[in-house]
Amino acid sequence: MRKEQISDKEAIILIMMFIIGTTLIVGTGGNAKNDAWISGILATFSFIPLLLIFSRLLSLFPGKDLFDIFSMVFGKVPGKILSAIYIWYSFHLGGLVLRNFGEFVNVVAFPETPLFIPMLCLGIVCIAAVYLGIEVMSRTTAIFVPLIISIVFVVLILGIPQLRMDYIQPILGNGFTTILVGAFSTFSFPMAETVIFLCIFTSLQTKKSPKRVYIWGTFIAASMIIIITIRNIAVLGNLAGNFYFPSYVAASRIRVGNFIQGVEVTVSFVFILGVFVKCTVCLLAACKGIAKVFNLKDYRSIVVQTGLLMIYFSYTVYYTIIEMNYWINKIYPYYAFPMQVIIPVITWIIAEIKKSRQPLTNK
Amino acid sequence: MKKFKRVVMSIIIFINLLFTAGCWNYRELDDLAIVAGAAIDKGADGQYTITTEIVEVDGSNDTKSTSKLVSMRGKTILDAIRNGISVTGKKLYWSHCKVAILSKEVAEEGVTTVLDIFIRDAEIRNVVNILYSQQDTAREILEGQQTTESIKSFALDKILKNETRLSKAPKTDLLDFSIELQTKGTSTVIPAVHLEDVKGSMIPRVAGAAIMKNDKMVGELGEEETKDLLFVRNEVKGGVLVRDKEVGLSAPISLEIFGNKTKVKPVVESGKLKFKVEIDATVGIDEIEGNENFIDDNAVKRLEASTSKETQKNVEELIKKIQSEYGTDIFKFGEKLREKDINKWKSVSDKWEEVFRNSEVDVDARVHVKNSALLYKTLKKGG
């Protein structure tokens, strides 16, 4: 079989869409109130070391994914256990994202349609995309990204009359701890979620590309998120934390003349594509992991099953959107911390030690 | 075989067309009752009465839209709204709702209890304007006659949108209102509307404002007072200043406001909190009813000085009045203090009302005359 390969550009786009995907709508750093944007900057900077570790792991073992790395570093059985944790994490995250999308559509557009229908529709598209492989996924995303970026910026520019910069002040008014808490939540959602890319980036071009891809993808996405956060605060003031979907509400304020109204629909388009990318990446990671753990030849034989399970899972995982929001804000950062930081860092340290010893043992 | 496959495929495609052709719960336009505005009253039995103005689109040759009023009652707002189905037979469609008029009773009882649904529900946009009815009920406003637009709620929306050129009423939409409500220390104002008798027909007129304390109405402001308030809140963008004998003129002159910039600076002087309000307005002479000329330089200076003084006096009086009578910070002083000096704000925020009542306010108004429009010399009456 031909080896799949994606260019650096496509990989950057994939990471960028993965990060901004749901965050553009759901918002981030709500705890920090009008300093949420500082939290965003802080989170980005604190993510840089982790990002370097991620890309170092990928360059240490070119062509290998996280599951291979685990079994190479920790041995066969512990490697499989760790792989199972990551399979669960990506499966769960994919479910969360899908549920988020379902709730958004349900609250905003189709209150009478059962929650399951939009989730099923998007889920099937994701299954198809994963079945076709990472090349198709990244190229589909690449087609839409210019549109996404232009939508984001046009909405941003149209929203300028609604901005009230007074709302940003006082900077650092709520104390530094709230900013740190906000930064932590921004760090875990969405920045450090990119750990999932460790599971699927086996098809990058060169040894150097992981670093390049991670840095550029994160940089572009983080700057967009920070700008959007500032916009949301400047439009919604102290209400920004009260809404489930602040960007949507902020966009619905736009009223240029009598004819440009209701541009919030375009924002949902961004959301749909973001969810598509995020969900596909998670599903792909989960499938690859399962295939590795059970020594399957190709992950494609289990895509449909895993995908459908993910859809059902997302449907049953929460009772209501209220519960979902509580979980995302209060529990998720701590729940995800081991997968996002602790395990990759330990893996990296052991991998470095083993790599430095390996030449000696080889001789 | 190939042909058979083709036939089967095309049959499947055509069957698919049936299922994908539209939403299963589509709503036809004539099944909807489009709400343009709502008036909320509370009856003696504690039930809400909501009167909605419903747009009726006449689909004949010349599309003309008229409106009619529908009233419904219920324990809560949503209860009342859904009870509307039993009156109209249609589900009300709220996306185009532009105004929500509150009666005095509702406003005094607390606005948030009523408006929560307006900001929570996804169908209602948060650009809905909030109005306070000075009549006995809110319904009367929608019953009034209208001159320019056939749909009264849309007319009210237009009035409020262009209110910036008049500055006699604040413009408070749902989101602004909620933001100010949630800001600690700040109280908000909502525009007031009343019916004016013009040759026997009652026409709604937006003028003045209702003062809120937290979310309860505590008092009303007149038109001119509202303008002074807007000066302090830096929300004046246009309007007319009429100056008469108080500035030493024989007959009134009108100054059109072209722009205004107000800065509020909190200062702490020897432990005491003080607010400096600097009003900087640019006006043009647009109407002189008397014989005055303002040709020589000093005349303009004198006019500027006297107008400034007058504005300053009015604003000071208003601030004094609000401080002593209501003690609600509708000038956003607390907000300014929080923006500029967060530590001081934290130390006073818990007893802000008391601090606000006792804080000294220093008003400094400067009015600049920009031009006198087309006329250099005033017309001489009788040569």
UniProtKB/TrEMBL annotation, chain A:
Domain of life where this protein originates: Bacteria
Record GO biological process: spore germination
Compartment(s) of residence: Membrane
Keywords: Germination, Membrane, Transmembrane, Transmembrane helix, Transport
Main localization of the protein described in the UniProt heading: membrane
InterPro entries linked: Spore_GerAB (IPR004761)
Topology of this chain in the membrane: Multi-pass membrane protein
GO cellular component entries: membrane
Family annotation (Pfam families): Spore_permease (PF03845)
Residue stretches spanning the membrane: 12-30, 36-54, 66-89, 115-134, 141-160, 180-201, 213-234, 265-287, 299-322, 334-353
Sequence similarity: Belongs to the amino acid-polyamine-organocation (APC) superfamily. Spore germination protein (SGP) (TC 2.A.3.9) family.
Protein name: Spore germination protein
From TrEMBL, chain B:
The organism's taxonomic lineage, starting at the top: Bacteria, Bacillati, Bacillota, Clostridia, Eubacteriales
Matches recorded under Pfam families: Spore_GerAC, Spore_GerAC_N
Gene3D superfamilies: Nutrient germinant receptor protein C, domain 1, Nutrient germinant receptor protein C, domain 3
Domain (Spore germination GerAC-like C-terminal): residue spans on this chain: 208-372
Spore germination protein N-terminal domain: residues covered: 25-194
Location(s) in or outside the cell: Membrane
Protein name, UniProt field: Germination protein Ger(X)C
Species whose genome carries this gene: Ruminiclostridium papyrosolvens C7
Ranges in a coiled coil: none
Main subcellular location of this protein, as a coarse class: membrane
GO terms (BP aspect): spore germination
One GO location term (cellular component): membrane
Keyword Kinase applies: no
Mode of membrane association: Lipid-anchor
